[in-house]
Design brief:
Shape: globular
Structural class: mainly alpha
Order of helices and strands: HHHHHEEHHHHHHHHHH
Number of domains: 1
Radius of gyration: 20 Å
Strand content: under 5%
Distance between the termini: 15 Å
Number of helices: 15
Largest sheet: 2 strands, antiparallel
């Protein structure tokens, strides 16, 4: 089917929209680190059950050492490193700016796809990616005039205060010295975390594609071939869960995790988020990159901040500005260019 990968990418963006809303709610109740581990715990059993009924095994079959190596690296880079940077950046620069930096994920994916996979992007692909990224950028980035204690609500994702540099700090900063006419409104730590989150997502998805290429060879001629994206996701989840469990243990957050498990409402919402996120969303994302160019798939999946505007209005009763509306339109136009 033509454009199958692109259509799957759109489904992933919608799925991740639901995931963001569910995990936002759960994260406020039991903490984002606990939610990260619990979502992978639920997804482990969801995917394991699916694989058991389709392939006869709870764990991935016919995966060689190279497949496990690349998929494990993808889980550590994407789930652990990327998500840690993303959630931490929320507390420093808010989700509004963190999501802006996440639009760097497609260029990162294109760069690493070129290095590891030798992928090329057509001229219209570059145009579509540029238009989509521009649309996402103007939708979630506004001129801010933060005040002490000001809370910002961005697409129903976060309620954090923006931390900015004072004029005095700016004059002393590297950016202030190099570009005296440009004021850095965000702390460098938050900027680096935002870039790290995009790097983790972009690099992680390319590592997944490399791993799935090995998997396709080792599982050739078996029934597992049809379920490679799901089995590959299972491997990523195993390594990601192990990474988060280690972090929780080393940071002494086991008690917090235990308390979070007792919160029934948070557990139900986390379970729902696990269905739309690590189970359906991530598996479909791998199916998407398996059927189309990695950079194209990543760009389309990056439209989640635009799609989330609808529940943002419905659930949070916020008005969408003309700039946000224009960004959403540009994003749709950019996505449509991939089909030309």
């Amino acid at each position: 089917m033509q454009y199958f990968g692109e259509l799957i990418s759109i489904a992933v963006a919608v799925s991740w929209t639901f995931t963001a809303l569910f995990f936002e709610f759960a994260g406020k109740r039991i903490g984002s680190l606990s939610v990260n581990l619990l979502r992978l715990f639920f997804a482990f059993f969801l995917l394991g059950g699916m694989l058991y009924f389709t392939t006869g095994s709870f764990l991935p079959l016919h995966a060689d050492a190279s497949t496990w190596l690349w998929m494990s690296l993808s889980g550590l880079v994407g789930f652990v490193f990327g998500d840690l940077c993303l959630f931490y950046s929320y507390t420093i620069i808010t989700a509004r700016f963190a999501q802006l930096f996440m639009t760097l994920a497609p260029p990162f994916a294109a760069f690493f796809g070129w290095i590891l996979l030798g992928e090329k992007l057509s001229f219209m692909g570059f145009v579509g990616m540029s238009v989509t990224l521009f649309g996402i950028g103007i939708s979630i980035l506004k001129k801010s005039q933060p005040k002490n204690g000001d809370n910002t609500v961005v697409a129903g994702i976060s309620h954090m205060s923006v931390v900015t540099e004072s004029p005095a700090e700016k004059k002393k900063s590297f950016v202030g010295k190099m570009m005296p006419n440009v004021e850095l409104h965000l702390p460098m730590k938050g900027v680096l975390l935002g870039v790290g989150a995009a790097l983790g997502q972009g690099f992680g998805i390319v590592l997944s594609k490399v791993g799935m290429n090995y998997y396709a060879i080792s599982a050739e001629g078996t029934s597992v071939v049809e379920y490679i994206p799901f089995a590959a996701t299972h491997m990523r989840i195993i390594s990601g869960a192990a990474g988060f469990a280690l972090i929780i243990a080393l940071t002494g957050r086991i008690k917090i995790l235990r308390e979070g498990v007792k919160d029934k409402k948070a557990m139900v919402v986390t379970f729902l988020g696990s269905i739309f996120g690590p189970f359906v969303g991530v598996s479909l994302s791998l199916l998407a990159v398996q059927n189309t160019n990695t950079a194209v798939a990543s760009t389309i999946m990056a439209t989640t901040p635009i799609i989330i505007l609808l529940p943002y209005v419905l659930f949070y009763k916020k008005k969408v500005t003309m700039v946000e509306l224009a960004g959403a339109v540009l994003s749709v136009v950019g996505v449509s260019l991939f089909f030309l």
